Structures are given as structure tokens and as C-alpha cells.
Amino acid sequence: EVSTDDPETAFCTLANREALNPEEGSIHHCLYQFTRNETLTETNKLLCDVCTQRHCGPKNNIKSENKYVYTNAKKQMLISLAPPILTLHLKRFQHAGFNLRKVNMHIKFPEVIDLAPFCTAKCKNVAEGNTKVLYSLYGVVEHSGTMRSGHYTAYVKMRAMNNHLSDLVLRGQSQALETEPVKGQWFHISDTHVQAVSVSKVLSSQAYLLFYERLL
Hints:
This protein is mainly beta.
């Protein structure tokens, strides 16, 4: 879907992303890098239909690929619809020559995360005037080992059912904003072994997958 927005607001977010100053090695820094503004130039120029039609006339008059007009452009990936459940998948590998190597670096992640700096100013499922889009952590998948072998374990929070979140999933209706993490007990699950753990233990894990639920 192609839409035309005011260039002054096309790259605006719900909250000022430049005020973030995210710490390197954090999930905020990962999101900041993933949603950064990119300039497309040279071989990455964007094919512009408007420029092409202005220069060559209607599309059906264009007989050669050389007649298409490409132009410099800006590109940015932002969240246009705040999901009820947010799943973040961390890239835990990097290329080392012809081989893949696992990245064991600890990535810091919070118990409550605000997605507003990474959402469009017209983000759906966000009430008008809200400048926060908060999510509470409820699950983590951790991988130990190498690229060739290893073991998956999980941290899961046992908590009460969130009726407001159910309404959002079923009816697309958002309610008043909460700011505190959902209360509950964390458990570490490894095969058949289940053990209660503290939230500090969860936040120190080598996260591979992070699961957050919208705070409503």
C-alpha cells in the first residue's frame, strides 16, 4: 500500500526518539538501530512513479527500463499498529568468514518497555493524546550452547488474566493506560524441571526471544 504523507510528519513518532539516548547493548538500542532513518542513494535509489510519469508520460508509454526515473529517498521502519502481544527475536549469530558464530553478549531488557519512540505518530490502537505505549514482560526464551548444539529453556510469569487485553484482541478496543508491570511469580522451565525464580534472575538471562503484553 502506497500512501502520501506530509514530508514534515512522515517520519514523526509518538515520543521523541532522539531523547532516548539508548545504552549500547540494550534492547532499546537494538530497536533504535532497527528503526533508524536511512537515506537511499546511488544504487539504492527509489523508483518514483510520479517522477517517471512526469518525465515519460503514462506507464503504458514506457517501453524501456532505462526510462524509469529513480530518485534519492528516505526510508524508516516504524510500528503502525501496536500489537496486543509483542514478540522480539534477537539475532544471536554473526558471520565469521564462511561460518556462523553465536553472539553470547548479554542484551539488557526491561520489565516494562515503552514502544512510543518506535511508533508512527498516527499509530493505530493508541488513544489520541497518549505518548506512551507500554508493554510488560511475561516470557523469555534462552539458548545455551553453540550454533551446532545447545539447549533451550524458558522463563514464564504466572499472572492473572488481563480482561482489558482480551478486549483489545477480540474487539480492537483500548482502555485506560497502566504503567506498572503485571504482578505475578516468575518460573524457570528446563525440560521437566520447574523452579520459582526472582525477576532479577530473569533480567540477567541471555535472551533469545522476549514476550511482552500490552499494558491496558
